[in-house]
Write a structure and sequence with these properties.
The protein is mainly α. It is built from 5 helices and no strands. The longest helix is centred in the middle third of the chain and has 28 residues.
Length: about 130
């Protein structure tokens, strides 16, 4: 099972090096991993890489937005909002799952979470903790 999970994640990540533009590659990887994770919620590697892909996708979209106008810019703006909502949800879900036990890797996910929503104070009534 571990080998199958590793192979799936590596195949999806290979899209990062597929020659697509950075926005398309990051989006493709994030979407593919977003489909893998619900099918195998115990695949910590896929879930971790999904958070990282979402985190990488946001700056790629921002960079692309700088060079566009009009309808395309609005479309990218909506995509950025979506990514910025998905990333913290995926990150907190992974952290809360207890699957990621390596403290260094947990801290990396917390760093992604802080970068995506740095202005949000912790909600003491929330079950989700960063």
């Amino acid at each position: 099972m571990r080998d199958r999970r590793t192979l799936v994640v590596k195949a999806v990540l290979a899209k990062d090096r597929s020659g697509l533009d950075p926005v398309s590659a990051a989006r493709s990887v994030a979407e593919d991993l977003g489909r893998v994770c619900p099918d195998d919620p115990d695949d910590v590697g896929a879930r971790e890489q999904h958070v990282a892909a979402l985190y990488r996708h946001a700056p790629a979209v921002r960079t692309s937005m700088r060079s566009t106008t009009g309808r395309e810019r609005a479309t990218l703006g909506e995509r950025l909002k979506s990514v910025c909502a998905q990333c913290p949800d995926s990150a907190t879900g992974l952290l809360d799952s207890g699957l990621l036990t390596d403290e260094e890797r947990r801290e990396q996910i917390r760093g992604f979470l802080r970068a995506v929503r740095p202005e949000e104070p912790p909600d003491p009534l929330s079950s989700r903790r960063a």
